[in-house]
Structure formats: C-alpha cells, structure tokens
Amino acid sequence: MTSIKSLLAESPYLTSIPASYIFRNNNIDPNDSALLTEPELKIPIIDFSLLTSGDPNQRSKVISELGEACENWGFFMVINHSVPERLIDAVIDGCKGFFDLAEEEKLEFKGKHVLDPIRYGTSFNASVDKVFYWRDFLKVFVHPQFHFPNKPSGFSELALEFCKKIRQVVKGILGGISEGLGLERDYIYKSLNLESGLQVFAANLYPPCPQPELAMGMPPHSDHGVLTLLIQNGICGLQIQHNGKWVNVNAIPNSFLVNTCDQLEIFSNGKYKSVVHRAVVNNNATRISLAIANGPSLDTVVSPASELVENRPPAYIGLKYKEYLELQQSRNLNGKCMLDCVRLL
C-alpha cells in the first residue's frame, strides 16, 4: 500500500482524500464527542525528581499524586526526568530524517509480521484495516535486543542512548506506581520481567491532510503494554478520553506524555485503567510523534497481582504477553477490545 508521504508527493495539489481514508464511511467521526476545554481541566503533572527524592515526605506526596493520576486519568505528564532536551530534539530530528528518505530506501525495512524487529509501513495494519489511517510509521524492537535501521546516518546511536534513558525513567515511575498500590517498590518491575521486557520504538508521521475532519491519524484505542512514553515535534494531535469526552493534550516543553496501558490494568486488577486515546490530523502542519512502548517480556503471563485479589476476585484471565500482542495487532483497533477478550468481570 502507498504511504501517505508518497501519496502527497505524487499528488501535490490534492484537495480531497481518497474514499478509503474517509472515516465517516465507518461510522467514526473525529468530532464525535465534544472536547473538554474548560480552563480548570488540568492533566496531572508528575515531577520525576521528587519521585526519586531522598525526602520521604516529598516522595510520599508524589506517589499519592501518581496513584490518583493512574486511577482517575490513566495519563499524566512527567517533568524533570533528567533526559537531556538536546537528545530528545535530536531523536525527533532523526525520525524526520528517516521519513524524508526516498521511498525505496524506507521499503528496505518493510516488515510482514507484528514480531518482525523492524517494520516500516502505513495505516495500522493495512492488510486488515477497513479504512486507512492518515499515518506512516516506523516500529522497531529496541529491547531486550536492540534492532534499528542503518539510515539515516547516526540515527541508530541516538535511539540507543535515548531508549536506555527511557527505561530508567520507566523503572522509576513503576516504582512509584507499585508503592501506590501498597506493594514493594520493585514489585511490578520484577513480576513482569521488565529487565528483559519488550521495548518498542514507534515513530509516527502525520502529514497535512486536505480534509482533516474526515480522516483519522489513529482511531480510539488503548496500548497493549505497561507504560507508553511519548514526545512530539511541537504539533498537537493527541487526544485522550476522560469521563467519556475527548481532551486535547498540550504538552509542557521537555516533558514526557505517559499513558497507562492494558497490562497495567490487568496487573492492578482494574484499579488503574489503561487510557483510550487517538490521534487527529490537521491541514497545515506535519506532526511527528515518537511513542516508546514498554511492556513485559514476551513470555510473561500477565494476570492480576495476587496481593490485589484478596478482597476482590480476579477481573481478568492471565495471558502470555506475546499472545496478547499478536491478537491486538491482527485485528482492527477499536477502543479496549483486547481487554474485553480477557475480562472476567
């Protein structure tokens, strides 16, 4: 299937989108719900430096804030995370450089299966998508083994450094989440084998769309892993679902956008919900986002933690993470449809 970037290059004066990209034909309208835009609506902000602080009072306060964010939002911003801004900017520039490669060069990295370590493509899963998304992507497995395209020059080295630093941030956040659940600090990290967990580098390109009201960058969905950390090139387009309505996310400079994912909802026995989110497009600017998905090891069976089912029966069946991942990637994205497959209550 032709990438969005190639489609626009071949039709520079495109004023309408092909019918295969129109979501109204699939009863999905990007404006299907009013946006919450009240000034008092504030997305939670977590100060990572306090989460790793030696001051027990500061740490206790931020752990409480983190627990509230996971329970009531499934989403928060992380500031003061110590990942250099120059590195974040360089990685975004590397993503742009990859998408700017000639199509023949990018197609060298075209994968066929969800577990292929490097996959360049368009839409979500073009072989099963009934309507195509206005998005090109690069997905790479970067842990426990590091894979990466060898183009553009220097991109691989930047990505390696960046992903290592992200894993340290994830470990710190999960420590706070564990303690917020009344568990030991390393409980989630160890139970889900995050030391050898799957980390995926997912770069997304959303070019300007001549009819953004008809198209969708990514439909409403939840992520399959434990935590996803996201950065972008300053162009907004992420929306999260909160109390049944869509909220525009405007990131604080040099922050990470973090969403809780399906495996954390399963592990917490439903106390912490994975957040449903989507990507909308615009008609005047190219948006580049980079999501770093952090999950258990592929062979880990994820089920509700035994300590969290003492007063409430398990709400989900256990399933090997590899099987969960393959199932999600083999079907159309639709809200939390995969969680519904393993839900007991």
Average pLDDT across residues?
91
- Uncertain ranges: 25-31
Q: Largest beta sheet: what is the strand line-up?
A: 1-2-10-7-12-5-4-3
Number of E strands: 14
Q: What is the percentage of strand-forming residues? A: 15-25%
CATH topology assignment: Jelly Rolls
CATH architecture: Sandwich
Helix coverage percent: 25-40%
Order of helices and strands: HEHHEHHEEHHEEEEEEHEEEEHH
Radius of gyration: 19 Å
Family: Belongs to the iron/ascorbate-dependent oxidoreductase family.
Keywords: Dioxygenase, Iron, Metal-binding, Oxidoreductase, Vitamin C
GO molecular function: dioxygenase activity; L-ascorbic acid binding; metal ion binding
Protein name: Putative 2-oxoglutarate/Fe(II)-dependent dioxygenase
